[in-house]
């Protein structure tokens, strides 16, 4: 039986962004029902709204969320009703070669990126019984979800839901980019271009790893001030500075250059920021058909590397509880990542916050 209808934020390829009433069916085998308590608004939701990532079907948006388990289907062993969970938007299949090798972030069997549950279905129906599809297998901008067990990661009950929500995407991606993808060592230097929710999490991860210096670049002075609080030793205005020239002149090139925007034009400038042997880390996600060009002689001659970074090369069930514990121990200042908290009915304004770079991360509460 579907649950009662409740409001959801839906992107419809014919009608655009809007509010719709949705119901979710009961959890089947291997599935978990979630009562969503907080959901962050990430640029990966905006990529759908802007058409960077085209969709042919209506999607319930939202993929950075935390909540409480309300029911479980048969065979579910890792969570039970009442558990607090952070949702993973890349629910691994746990069976493919990459999962078996311990590389869940590279899973080839997940259906999350097809915006369905693992069996290709959706749990959501609209007011007229029409299907609505879960963005990244979640669709967290509504109250009630049904997700695969591997998408529900148990966290301590004392973790605030807003922090849990951000652990679902920006924090795990940004800190993971540093500690998992790049494996930055104490004393190595780094630049982070783009300091939204994801880039600020990269800055935090760099401080945690002991990187120095840490150069943050953004167009927003407000965001750069936050970056300083999170550990940036230098901040640069991206509009008025040749960042590569600055890095070469002041630091002899950096060991790591992180891009957390998704701009092909910015990505193309990363290798010139590096010292020999350095690595460019592509954390931002561009439009699906974006391409870029690099000086190939420089890359080969200087042994520079380009690293892709899906979900901070993280294993959700290992890394999300680990980051939650670091926060609870006072080692990660995650409270400062939360900007406004708005009700779900203000989703359009929340997207405006993101577009205008107002505050840091806006949280929606269903
Ligand atoms: N790799 C992953 O698994 C993963 C996970 C989550 C998000 N993402 C992607 O990361 C990117 C960032 O997400 P977000 O939610 O932090 O976005 P955001 O919009 O909150 O932040 C982007 C920041 O980039 C800044 N910026 C824009 N153009 C710039 C320029 N030319 N120079 C310097 N700064 C500039 C903006 O001022 C803003 O602060 C998006 O592309 C998102 O899709 C990737
Ligand atoms: Zn995200
Ligand atoms: Zn897999």
TrEMBL record:
Per the database entry, which stretches of residues form a coiled coil?
none
Q: Which Pfam families match?
A: ADH_N, ADH_zinc_N
GO MF entry, a single one: oxidoreductase activity
Domain (Enoyl reductase (ER)) ranges: 16-364
UniProt xrefs under InterPro entries: ADH-like_C (IPR013149), ADH-like_N (IPR013154), ADH_Zn_CS (IPR002328), ER (IPR020843), GroES-like_sf (IPR011032), NAD(P)-bd_dom_sf (IPR036291)
Q: Which keywords annotate this record?
A: Metal-binding, Oxidoreductase, Zinc
**What is the designated name of this protein?**
Alcohol dehydrogenase catalytic domain-containing protein
């Amino acid at each position: 039986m579907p649950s009662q209808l409740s409001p959801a934020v839906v992107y419809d390829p014919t009608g655009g962004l809007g509010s719709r009433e949705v119901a979710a069916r009961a959890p089947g085998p291997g599935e978990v029902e979630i009562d969503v308590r907080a959901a962050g608004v990430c640029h990966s939701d905006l990529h759908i709204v802007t058409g960077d990532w085209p969709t042919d079907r209506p999607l319930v948006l939202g993929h950075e969320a935390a909540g409480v388990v309300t029911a479980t289907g048969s065979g579910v062993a890792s969570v039970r009703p009442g558990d607090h969970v952070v949702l993973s938007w890349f629910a691994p299949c746990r069976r493919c070669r990459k999962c078996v090798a311990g590389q869940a972030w590279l899973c080839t069997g997940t259906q999350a990126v097809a915006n369905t549950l693992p069996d290709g279905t959706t749990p959501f129906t609209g007011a007229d019984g029409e299907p609505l599809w879960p963005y990244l297998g979640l669709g967290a901008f509504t109250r009630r979800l049904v997700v695969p067990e591997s998408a529900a990661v148990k966290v301590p009950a004392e973790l605030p839901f807003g922090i849990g929500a951000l652990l679902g995407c920006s924090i795990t991606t940004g800190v993971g980019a540093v500690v998992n993808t790049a494996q930055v060592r104490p004393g190595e230097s780094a630049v982070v271009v783009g300091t939204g929710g994801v880039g600020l999490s990269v800055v935090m991860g760099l401080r945690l790893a002991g990187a120095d210096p840490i150069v943050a670049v953004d167009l927003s002075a407000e965001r750069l001030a936050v970056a300083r609080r999170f550990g940036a030793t230098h901040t640069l205005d991206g509009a008025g500075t040749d960042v590569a020239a600055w890095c070469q002149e002041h630091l002899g090139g950096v060991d790591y250059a992180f891009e957390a925007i998704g701009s092909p034009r910015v990505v193309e400038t990363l290798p010139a920021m590096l010292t020999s042997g350095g690595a460019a880390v592509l954390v931002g996600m561009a439009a699906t058909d974006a391409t870029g060009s690099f000086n190939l002689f420089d890359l080969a001659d200087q042994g520079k590397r380009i690293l892709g970074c899906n979900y901070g090369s993280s294993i959700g069930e290992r890394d999300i509880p680990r980051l939650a514990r670091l926060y609870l121990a006072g080692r990660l200042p995650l409270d400062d990542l939360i900007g406004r908290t708005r009700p779900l009915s203000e989703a359009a304004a929340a997207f405006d916050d993101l577009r205008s770079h107002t505050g840091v991360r806006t949280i929606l509460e269903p």
